[in-house]
Specification:
163 residues
Length: 163
């Protein structure tokens, strides 16, 4: 998939970020029709790690992430659950590797990863949104920020590699 820019992402995200609850089912139904495995993944994600409020946030952000890609009319074949699970496992391996990095090398390693990441604007945008959630009265456990980012990165990676 071509790299997405903040200029493309932001207006599409903002258009749905504060949608009325009655508008959400239509968006979720479109996701279910076009990417049922993404819907299943987002519904199951973090059930053994995250608090309910955090899981709801991951679900909503995942739906918005798909909305951005869908609205840009990027043709994405249907993702498989196997692809999502394999990609998630690789992302958690990366997270474990980063957790083992000395503080002095951590930021250098993250910068190198982001410099070579095809969807760095999209991932940075998502991470920024995760970090804004406490301002919106969503309590995020401190050590869950990275886990939440990994779940959403998994969806990004799958979209990126299949197109």
């Amino acid at each position: 998939m071509r790299p997405l820019t903040v200029e493309e992402i932001d207006p599409l995200w903002q258009s749905k970020e504060n949608m009325e609850p009655e508008d959400a089912p239509g968006l979720v139904e479109r996701l279910e029709r076009r990417q049922p495995n993404i819907l299943s993944y987002l519904l199951a994600t973090g059930s053994d790690i995250l608090e309910q409020e955090e899981r709801a946030m991951v679900f909503f952000m995942g739906v918005l992430l798909w909305h951005v890609i869908d609205s840009l009319q990027i043709e994405v074949p249907e993702l498989t659950l196997e692809m999502l699970v394999e990609t998630e496992a690789k992302n958690f391996e990366m997270l474990e590797y980063l957790a083992g990095e000395p503080d002095s090398e951590f930021m250098d390693t993250v910068e190198k990863i982001m410099a070579n990441y095809n969807q760095s604007d999209l991932l940075q945008y998502i991470i920024g949104k995760i970090l804004q959630e406490p301002q919106k009265d969503v309590e995020i456990t401190e050590n869950h920020v990275g886990v939440i980012a990994i779940y959403l990165k998994t969806v990004i990676d799958c979209f990126d590699t299949i197109t």
